[in-house]
């Protein structure tokens, strides 16, 4: 009889250890996915000073935009949570896109080789950030599902595992763009 009880206890302990290790692995995958975003954010932050210097020489009247980019770049670097970093990052992406739009008004800037290379590198980096965000949300979803399913939720509660934050799309990016073709057919 004692062997049966000991056998059941050993199986329970092994189950708890296995579930705990699975939770630790999932939490680490979530952290690793965030670090991939962080790497791309740093890469973009490293490219932006070069972009600002290149644009400064051509777009003398765009000082406000350049100052805002510098400020947002600092906010991304100083963010204390994934949500805060992504909010600043999204705003920074919009400002950088604004710089590229402003470049349309400066033909010499658009033709500048350095500007074109920076534009391409920043576009590639934005694509990598987008992919890394998708990966992070996928890994986070898997982790959070584990935290909510039985019996993992019991063990997660015993050891203090917490839900991970999803990265949300800003409200202004969810809005359906208005397209007006009224002037095209004239």
TrEMBL record:
<dbReference type="InterPro" id="IPR007156">
    <property type="entry name" value="MamQ_LemA"/>
</dbReference>
<dbReference type="GO" id="GO:0016020">
    <property type="term" value="C:membrane"/>
</dbReference>
<protein>
    <submittedName>
        <fullName>LemA family protein</fullName>
    </submittedName>
</protein>
<keyword id="KW-0472">Membrane</keyword>
<comment type="similarity">
    <text>Belongs to the LemA family.</text>
</comment>
<dbReference type="InterPro" id="IPR023353">
    <property type="entry name" value="LemA-like_dom_sf"/>
</dbReference>
<keyword id="KW-0812">Transmembrane</keyword>
<keyword id="KW-1133">Transmembrane helix</keyword>
<dbReference type="Pfam" id="PF04011">
    <property type="entry name" value="LemA"/>
</dbReference>
């Amino acid at each position: 009889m004692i062997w049966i009880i000991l056998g059941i206890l050993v199986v329970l302990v092994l189950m708890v250890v296995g579930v705990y290790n699975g939770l630790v692995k999932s939490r680490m995958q979530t952290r690793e996915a965030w670090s991939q975003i962080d790497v791309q954010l740093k890469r973009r932050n490293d490219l932006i000073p070069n972009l600002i210097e290149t644009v400064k020489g051509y777009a003398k009247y765009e000082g406000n935009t350049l100052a805002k980019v510098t400020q947002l770049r600092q906010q991304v670097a100083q963010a204390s949570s994934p949500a805060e970093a992504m909010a600043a990052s999204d705003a920074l992406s919009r400002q950088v896109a604004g710089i590229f739009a402003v470049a349309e008004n400066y033909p010499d800037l658009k033709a500048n080789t350095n500007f074109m290379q920076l534009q391409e590198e920043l576009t590639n980096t934005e694509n990598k950030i987008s992919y890394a965000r998708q990966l992070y949300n996928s890994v986070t979803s898997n982790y959070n599902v584990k935290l909510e399913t039985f019996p993992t939720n019991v063990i997660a509660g015993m050891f203090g595992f917490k839900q991970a934050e999803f990265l949300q799309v800003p409200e202004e990016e969810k809005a359906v763009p208005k397209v007006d073709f009224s002037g095209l057919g004239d």
